[in-house]
Amino acid sequence: MKKMIQRLLAAILVCGTAVLTSCSNNDNNAIPDTSALDRWQAGKTVSQEAVAAYGGIDKCFAAEPIPDGVWARMQGKTFKENPYIGRDDLRHVRALHWDYDNQMHVGEMIVNVKIADCVAGILRQLFDAKYPIQRMLLPDVYDADDETQMRDNNSSCFCYRNIAATNNLSKHARGLAIDINTLYNPYIKTLDDGTLLIQPAPVSLTATARGISPTR
């Protein structure tokens, strides 16, 4: 009887070890969360494992027709009815980018169809070089308010608007101008009356307030 009990206990220990090993392997082989990539949620942080599970880096850089959901978000914000440019003249660029903390993020831009493929390629080169881009969100997140998105160091392209302090359409209105890391690369212009226009607020003050390193 004693030997039988010892054999039974040994069998339980062996089975228990197998179960624990199996659980450990399952944890190590857990499927990465790709939801931010599947839904292309700009601003979300993603891991290299998630990118690999999604289909790889190449799949994350593309210029495509603007999805219905994105187009709906743009209405009355970055896009306003006009005689110069429409949906078919624009493209939605998907990209990944590194931030200043070496974290990988989902990004997106709306650009002119004429430069869309080129922009996707350049953003890929910047990604490969680990060039830091703080944010790459559509200006619609900021209700298309240029000052607000620049203060948040956002990088973007299309926004149907005039050049600051003028009645002339900006190249952004045609998706032909891109601003990168706008907090560190402010718009500076001397107006006709001699006033110095700076957008956003002076970099040193704003950067210090937000605790952001001035390294470009």
SSE blueprint and pairings:
Elements: H1 2-28, H2 35-38, H3 48-54, E1 62-64, H4 68-74, E2 90-98, E3 104-112, H5 116-128, H6 146-151, E4 187-190, E5 196-199, H7 203-210
Antiparallel strand pairs: 1-2, 2-3, 4-5
Structure report:
This protein is an alpha+beta fold and 216 residues long. It has one domain. The chain has seven helices and five strands, in the order H-H-H-E-H-E-E-H-H-E-E-H. Strand 2 and strand 3 form a beta hairpin.
Order of strands in the sheet with most strands: 1-2-3
Number of helices: 7
Measured between the Cα atoms of the first and last residue, the distance is 77 Å
Would you identify the regions where 5 or more consecutive residues have pLDDT less than 50? 8-24, 205-216
Structural class by SSE content: alpha+beta
Number of strands: 5
How would you describe the shape? globular
Give the DSSP E fraction (strand runs of 2 or more residues): 5-15%
Total count of domains: 1
**Radius of gyration computed on alpha carbons:** 25 Å
What level of helicity do the residues show? Answer: 25-40%
Mean pLDDT: 85
SSE order, one letter for each helix or strand:
HHHEHEEHHEEH
Biggest pleated sheet: 3 strands, antiparallel
